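Late entry, written up from scratch paper. The run itself happened at the end of the previous shift, but nothing got recorded in the book at the time, so transcribing now.
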Amino acid sequence: MTEELTIVYISLSGNTQSFVKRLSQHLLTKHQIKVNQINIKDLKHETFPVEEDYVAILPTYLEGGNGLDSGDVEILTTPLGEFIASHGNVDHCFGIIGSGNRNFNNQYCLTAKQYSKRFGFPMLGDFELRGTSADIERLADIILKAKEDFQTK
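Output as recorded:
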């Protein structure tokens, strides 16, 4: 029997979607885990209950501020936060992974850090832009360990 993993994500420019597709292929090939991908962008602001445990992945799109003291406003990715907050979905999220561009310094992966704090689940890791093969391998291992730890609580 093949194990399954659910990834809830939002992709706007295609970078996060590319990462999720490559991560899914890696998990299937190396770990025999079938990934159920839920791209929030495709839902057009609809929400529904997620019954299985999942990991969330999102890019950072902010307006204004410097990520430290002058404020910032999350833009474009808010539907993922709404999805997590609805129907008790937060109870099934065992962690979040952020993506971004390191050129933005303190704002790099800031949305994932904010979601971690807001919802009380751990930030499991990060990757830049589309992520590298090393990121895929590293984060696959982290996700599998976090899922196992979450389910044995």
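Strands lie at 3-9, 33-39, 54-59, 62-63, 73-74, 93-100, 123-128.
(Scratch paper discarded after transcription.)
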